[in-house]
Amino acid sequence: MTALLQVTGLTKQFPLKGGRVARAVDGVDLTLDAGEALGLVGESGCGKSTVARLVLRLIPPSGGSIRFAGQEISALGDTALRPLRRGMQIIFQNPHAALNPRRTVFQSVAEPLVVQRVASGAALRSRVGALLTEVGLPETFLWRYPHELSGGQKQRVCIARALALAPKLVVLDEPTSALDVSVQAQILEFLRELRMRQQLAYLFISHNLAVVRQVCDRVGVMYLSRIVEEGPVEAIFAAPRHPYTRALLAAILPPRPGVLPAETLAGDVPNAAAIPAGCRFAPRCPRRMPICTIDDPGLKRVAGGSPHSVACWGSFSD
Amino acid sequence: MTPLLDIRDWRLAFDGFEGRAQVLDGINLTVMPGETIGIVGETGCGKSVLARSVARLVDMPPGRILGGSIHFDGQDVMAMNGAALARLRGHGIAMIFQDPMTYLNPVFSIGAQMVDVIRAHDRASGQRPRNSAAARKKAADLLGSMRLPEPAGMLDRYPHELSGGMRQRVLIAMALIGTPRLLIADEPTTALDVTIQAQVLRLIAELVAMHALTLMLISHDLGVIGALCRRVVVMYAGTIVEDGEATTVFANPRHPYTRGLLAAVPDLEKPQHRAQPIPGQIPNLLSPPSGCRFHPRCALAVEQCTRDKPVMRDVAGRSVACHLAEHA
Questions:
Q1: pTM score, two decimals?
Q2: 8 Å CB contact of A261 and B227
Q3: Are B113 and B131 in contact (CB under 8 A)?
Q4: Which chain A residues are closer than 8 Å to B281 by Cβ?
Q5: CA–CA distance, A181 with A159 (Å, rounded to integer)
Q6: What are B12's strand-pairing partners?
Q7: ipTM, interface predicted TM-score of the complex
Q8: Residue B328: inside a domain, yes or no?
């Protein structure tokens, strides 16, 4: 079976002033099977949202290959992409900004169906009603405007809109980061159920490892424009190999008193315009060895049964 | 011992086109010198407005005081004149906020902004302001104590040249210029990445210990509150629902909302436990629910909860505002 999404050697460079370039995505490989959920975690500026936008071809890549449902889409133009876009949808972080304030819920959710000429008239009306039911909102919401909805309700409307064309792949870019915890838990639970029901594949972008663990089967950890560790969620959480993954996990605060987080990493993430030679994490790494500043380790499979990969000289020799 | 901060039956509303929203509904809070107190709650619960009330930073109008009092170190904050307020802000109370970029002026260097604040504090405390070389020296020392690299060079940099974590350190340094007694930190690490958050939280913990500061930390994140505070105050829809030692409240919450909040946080150390949502949503304060403001979302609510507003009372070693706290 071919993967739903197969990305190899993906790169994206943004030109900067003075002829320099920011290497926002710098050689990313990932695979996503139908119905699978892959989390992509990392801190601000690591390139995770750029990967999401490239995968959906909202922006063109600088290099590498993106195959969606068996078709190479990295170089397709807008017209050729349009029919494929039915199969791929996105949900953004801020539902307050993702809905047009002057459109009713009906207008927003109906738009993809109208653009793709899927339904009109009474069929459109009933399809949109069914979508609202699917996301747990009453049909009376059809005629409401975004300002009449809470944050969680708006995010459900965005999900309904993304589901309108029955996509195979949904990219979720920090879908709960703008929501309060009690509402975040509602949306996460809903996203889990929805995936089971509709056999959706998720590419789930988040800075929050705990959230990713709730929803995803596999997780990729990004640092400075590249994936440094990837594997099944449970393997990564139980036995993280990369020092950066370990630092990220150690910095998460449990909801308990008296736990001051370990200061595992000094300094800030370097700039994507000046990626260090060798291992890109080496300048901040507590376990740095001489080889780390010379040679790029590359993502390699960890020995053993699970499909767990890591890019770290130190962990290869363990 | 006199409390450093004494808030009694504080009631505050905002008047808008759609009516009056009562955002703080009878807040009672006493903070003793040296306490580290965390105020936790979700969007719109009133935690930031409460913090701003303390430094008298709520604009009136649209704000409107419906009743109550706030005393800082025995003095009535609402009765202070301009000079007393200037001393209160900076010397008595300093604040740091969520988004450090908003609170730094983008067109002045870090050094220029710090020198201004240092000299203003000299004036407010009745001294002749020190010359700019001395002020720059003081600024560099402060930045060094924030563990910022090359503090002297930092003075000539502009806010956009710094990372989020560095900007927050600069603001913390500025907050400490006036040697305040109370540090109010309103979501100080919410805009930062987790590894940077860990650095900043450790720094705040050190400074609080070193300067014997009283800390009032506002956050939606129970982990952040737990990391820095010995006492936790839980707010919901403009009211305090639970108040006690963090160890007591986290281990054995008595208010159904506190329990819901704790259960809604994904916890990495308990993978089998999935985050549990609280049903329903935060009420609209233009027409808050009758009785207990949490009752429409509460699984335990009985008829009394829809009618009578519960008052804070001592149950199992903490204060809680719930008619059913004994049974919970």
A1: 0.86
A2: yes
A3: no
A4: 150, 152-153, 183
A5: 18
A6: B24, B65
A7: 0.79
A8: yes
